[in-house]
Write a structure and sequence with these properties.
By secondary structure, the protein is mainly α. The protein is built from nine helices and no strands.
C-alpha cells in the first residue's frame, strides 16, 4: 500500500500545472500540499466566498486529479516506468475518496473503470489509450469536484481537458472527432468567458479566445496539435492571473 500523499503531492501539483497545460514543460517532480486548498488570497480575494452549506473539495479527490495528470505527463514524455510508479498513488486516492464519501455515483464508478483502463494501457505501453484514459480521469475528477467549492469554475479545468483531448486526437489523426471536440472547447469557453474577463482581465481573455478560434478554423491534424499546445499555454497564463498560482487545484 503506498504511503499517504504528503510533501510529494505538493511537488506533483506544480508539475501538472506547468506541464499538463503546456507540453513543453514536462517535469513531474514538483510539489503542492495534499491538504484542502487554503482560503483564497491575492487574486482570489475577488472570487465569491463559498456559502455556509458548501464544503471544500475532498483532498483525496484533489490528489486523484493530481496523480492522473502526472500519469498523463509521464506517458506523454515516454516515461513508462514513472507512469507505472504514479498509478498506485492514483488508485489509493480514488479508493480513499470513495471510502470517505461513500461514493456510489455513476461518476465514481466511471472513475474506477477509467483507472483500470489506464493501468492496462500503461502496462501495455499503449500511448494513445493511456493518454486518453489519464485525460478522462482528470475530467471525471473535475466533474466530481463541481458540487463542492473549487477555487475556480470547473469549466476552466475542462478547457484544459479539451485542449489535451485535441492533442491526442491530432496525434492519432482522428479527423472525425477533431471538429466536434474543438466545438466543445469553444462552447465551454463561451460559458466561462465572463468569469475570465472579470478575474483575469480583458486582454488575457482576448488572447485565450484567439487560441480557441484558431483551433476551430484549423483542419490539419499536425497543425492542430501545435495550436492545442498554444491553447494550453494560454490557459496556464489565465489561471495564473485568476488564482495567483499557476494551478489552483494542482
Amino acid at each position: 500500500m503506498p504511503s499517504r500523499p504528503g510533501l510529494k503531492v505538493l511537488l506533483l501539483a506544480s508539475a501538472f500545472a506547468l506541464g499538463c497545460e503546456a507540453r513543453s514543460q514536462l517535469g513531474v517532480d514538483g510539489g503542492a500540499s495534499a491538504a484542502a486548498p487554503a482560503a483564497p488570497t491575492g487574486a482570489l480575494s475577488a472570487l465569491p466566498p463559498a456559502g455556509p452549506s458548501v464544503t471544500p473539495v475532498p483532498p483525496d479527490l484533489l490528489n486523484a486529479e493530481i496523480y492522473a495528470g502526472n500519469v498523463y505527463l509521464a506517458v506523454d514524455a515516454g516515461k513508462w516506468a514513472r507512469a507505472t510508479r504514479e498509478l498506485p498513488d492514483l488508485e489509493q486516492a480514488v479508493r480513499e475518496f470513495r471510502r470517505e464519501t461513500l461514493g456510489q455515483s455513476e461518476d465514481v464508478q466511471l472513475l474506477d473503470e477509467t483507472v483500470e483502463r489506464l493501468r492496462a494501457a500503461v502496462a501495455g505501453q499503449e500511448r494513445i489509450d493511456a493518454l486518453r484514459a489519464a485525460n478522462e480521469a482528470t475530467l471525471i475528477t473535475t466533474n466530481l469536484a463541481e458540487p463542492y467549492a473549487p477555487l475556480v469554475p470547473p469549466d476552466v479545468d475542462r478547457l484544459g481537458y479539451y485542449g489535451r483531448a485535441l492533442q491526442i486526437l491530432a496525434e492519432s489523426n482522428d479527423r472525425a472527432k477533431l471538429t466536434a471536440e474543438a466545438a466543445e472547447l469553444a462552447r465551454t469557453w463561451a460559458g466561462v468567458k465572463p468569469f475570465v474577463v472579470q478575474h483575469a482581465g480583458v486582454a488575457l481573455a482576448e488572447r485565450f479566445e484567439a487560441s480557441v478560434r484558431a483551433l476551430e478554423k484549423e483542419q490539419e491534424p499536425s497543425r492542430l496539435e501545435d495550436l492545442a499546445s498554444a491553447e494550453l499555454d494560454e490557459l496556464r497564463v489565465v489561471r495564473h492571473a485568476i488564482t495567483d498560482t499557476p494551478r489552483a487545484l494542482r
